[in-house]
Amino acid sequence: MSDVADRVKKIVVEHLGVEADKVTDNANFIDDLGADSLDTVELVMAFEEEFNVEIPDDAAETIVTVGDAIKFLEKNAA
Amino acid sequence: MRRVVVTGLGMVTPLGCGVEETWARIRDGQSGADRITDFEVDDLACKIACQIPRGDGTNGTFNADQWMEPKEQRKVDPFIVYAMAAATQALDDAGWKPTTYEDQCASGVLIGSGIGGIGGIYEASQTLIERGPRRVSPFFIPGRLINLAGGYVSIEHGLKGPNNAVVTACSTGSHAIGDAARLIALGDAEVMVAGGTESPINRLSIAGFAACRALSTGYNDEPTKASRPYDKDRDGFVMGEGAGVVVLEEYEHAKARGAKIYAEVIGYGLSGDAYHITSPSEDGDGAYRCMAAAIKRAGISASEIDYINAHGTSTPLGDELELKAVERIVGNAAGKLSMSSTKSAIGHLLGAAGAVEAIFSILAMRDGVVPPTINLDNPSVETPIDLVPHKAKNKEINVVLSNSFGFGGTNASLVMRRVS
């Protein structure tokens, strides 16, 4: 597992209060991990903070699974 | 109008988490005041407060994780967590868990707060200034709004009836119980979860209330002596935190399900001073009128009141004005009346005060015990009324009145009676 994936999963566990083993690449924040629309906004903010990157709203809308977040951040984070 | 009774009690106070835990310490004459250690106080005029004892939940300590999931706690100010704790206790005590759609729609919430999420507003302001708008959390607003205490409680317990909140400064808790009782009396609900909650102990609130010259500043080295209602050396109130919540229920509804009935809410009075934003009217007229309205509504004579839980905040002006208003209203019966201020022990819980004090009044009736006004060494004025200095005393109590007066000149009195 990449360093980015580790960090993403740690944030998801902390913010959504879910077990680490549920946070798989395919896990959908809303359908699988119990997030609501506000949780997903906060998650994106937490990714921005952790990776020191700006995630525009149109990009944020495409991040619906843990894997989407990892892919986006691997590509865009410095 | 339909009769309204109290069937459940819950509280978190500076003397503990739980009704019996707090009440035992109140009766014992303990103080919840201490030096503030959670934040820098060196530059504040007031360096003390009555803070909730935190711990693992044993021995009356407050463990937030028992009442709200950690991931939810993170999103809200503590006043919401306190409300969840007190409401859950009260509903458990009442044994009321509405599961059918009909029962859920007949059960409502009316929980208020004086200043709500002021601590979180302060922190989010710092985030906005230092790091910009993109760092302000989506939970900032919903976690600070006063009615979200009731919102969270309704979601947790499936309460789909009337959902309202009161914001009347230090009268909030009394207004919430009185207004909720009326909703039941008028038939809008069968059960209401009602009370007040407050988490005001932070640098901004202390600075603000100190600027109003409302807080005690002369007892920073002896915190437990600072809250001393009616004493000649009192110099302001001591800030407290916590929540008080009761379950109110229509009398026949409670009887039909065999619920334990603590008391009946027989009177509720409201008035406005129309005088000053922070000072009580100099003739005590507002206090007098709200007590008179509650007594009239109760259909009793003022001489029937056995115990008054006073607003009595330990401010130089307010205590004596309330005392004079009470003397005026009870007249010749003053000599048989007991009146104490439990703020001497737990400080001033602002929007939660009226609810917590209504519960103490109910427990005084239940146990036949008048809670003391601690630190009352030398009363500043003479009165025929027993102010219950230092020690609790045994007394048969059948009718109680609880007073709350708030900034803005907003007053509320509740009258409750034992149900035989």
UniProtKB/TrEMBL annotation, chain A:
<keyword id="KW-0444">Lipid biosynthesis</keyword>
<protein>
    <recommendedName>
        <fullName>Acyl carrier protein</fullName>
    </recommendedName>
</protein>
<keyword id="KW-0276">Fatty acid metabolism</keyword>
<dbReference type="InterPro" id="IPR006162">
    <property type="entry name" value="Ppantetheine_attach_site"/>
</dbReference>
<keyword id="KW-0597">Phosphoprotein</keyword>
<comment type="pathway">
    <text>Glycolipid biosynthesis; KDO(2)-lipid A biosynthesis.</text>
</comment>
<comment type="pathway">
    <text>Lipid metabolism; fatty acid biosynthesis.</text>
</comment>
<dbReference type="GO" id="GO:0036104">
    <property type="term" value="P:Kdo2-lipid A biosynthetic process"/>
</dbReference>
<dbReference type="GO" id="GO:0005829">
    <property type="term" value="C:cytosol"/>
</dbReference>
<comment type="similarity">
    <text>Belongs to the acyl carrier protein (ACP) family.</text>
</comment>
<dbReference type="InterPro" id="IPR036736">
    <property type="entry name" value="ACP-like_sf"/>
</dbReference>
<dbReference type="GO" id="GO:0031177">
    <property type="term" value="F:phosphopantetheine binding"/>
</dbReference>
<dbReference type="GO" id="GO:0009245">
    <property type="term" value="P:lipid A biosynthetic process"/>
</dbReference>
<keyword id="KW-0596">Phosphopantetheine</keyword>
<dbReference type="InterPro" id="IPR009081">
    <property type="entry name" value="PP-bd_ACP"/>
</dbReference>
<dbReference type="InterPro" id="IPR020806">
    <property type="entry name" value="PKS_PP-bd"/>
</dbReference>
<dbReference type="GO" id="GO:0000036">
    <property type="term" value="F:acyl carrier activity"/>
</dbReference>
<keyword id="KW-0963">Cytoplasm</keyword>
<dbReference type="GO" id="GO:0016020">
    <property type="term" value="C:membrane"/>
</dbReference>
<dbReference type="InterPro" id="IPR003231">
    <property type="entry name" value="ACP"/>
</dbReference>
<comment type="function">
    <text>Carrier of the growing fatty acid chain in fatty acid biosynthesis.</text>
</comment>
<feature type="domain" description="Carrier">
    <location>
        <begin position="2"/>
        <end position="77"/>
    </location>
</feature>
<dbReference type="GO" id="GO:0000035">
    <property type="term" value="F:acyl binding"/>
</dbReference>
<dbReference type="Pfam" id="PF00550">
    <property type="entry name" value="PP-binding"/>
</dbReference>
<keyword id="KW-0443">Lipid metabolism</keyword>
<feature type="modified residue" description="O-(pantetheine 4'-phosphoryl)serine">
    <location>
        <position position="37"/>
    </location>
</feature>
<keyword id="KW-0275">Fatty acid biosynthesis</keyword>
